[in-house]
Design brief:
Layout: E1 2-6, H1 10-22, E2 26-30, H2 33-41, E3 48-51, H3 60-69, E4 77-82, H4 87-96, E5 100-103, H5 108-117
Parallel strand pairs: 1-2, 1-3, 3-4, 4-5
């Protein structure tokens, strides 16, 4: 399985990447939604996107909308991983097509639980 971590924080990408690699994922990274879209349109195939909400250039919500608007990318599972904790943000992300929502800070166990709920483990 292959995951693309989309977060403007190098530290968050490193922490998520370490956890995902430990359970067998091949991990790619992008610093913002625009770079993630470019990777996907240039042929990088992924099974899972882990997306921060607040990023420069293209935020996570707009990325989720763009991925879900492209029928060729519909099989990608999406987890929002963000500090945005309001129920409004959760509902908006899920309505846009995110499959799960994980709030920062998180533990590896909580990440694994969400991946299990998504059918990724």
């Amino acid at each position: 399985m292959r995951a693309l971590i989309v977060d403007d924080s190098k530290t968050v990408r490193m922490v998520l990447g370490k956890s995902l690699r430990e359970i067998g994922f091949d991990v790619l990274e992008a610093e913002d939604g625009q770079k993630a879209i470019e990777r996907l349109y240039q042929g990088d195939t992924v099974d899972l996107l882990l997306v921060d909400w607040n990023m420069p250039v293209m935020n996570g919500y707009d990325l989720v909308c763009a991925v879900r608007a492209n029928i060729l990318l519909n099989d990608i599972r999406i987890m929002m991983v963000t500090t945005e904790s309001s129920m409004e943000h959760v509902q908006k992300a899920l309505a846009a097509g995110a499959n799960e929502y994980l709030m920062k800070p998180f533990t590896k166990d909580l990440l694994l639980e969400k991946l299990t709920l998504m059918g990724m483990l």
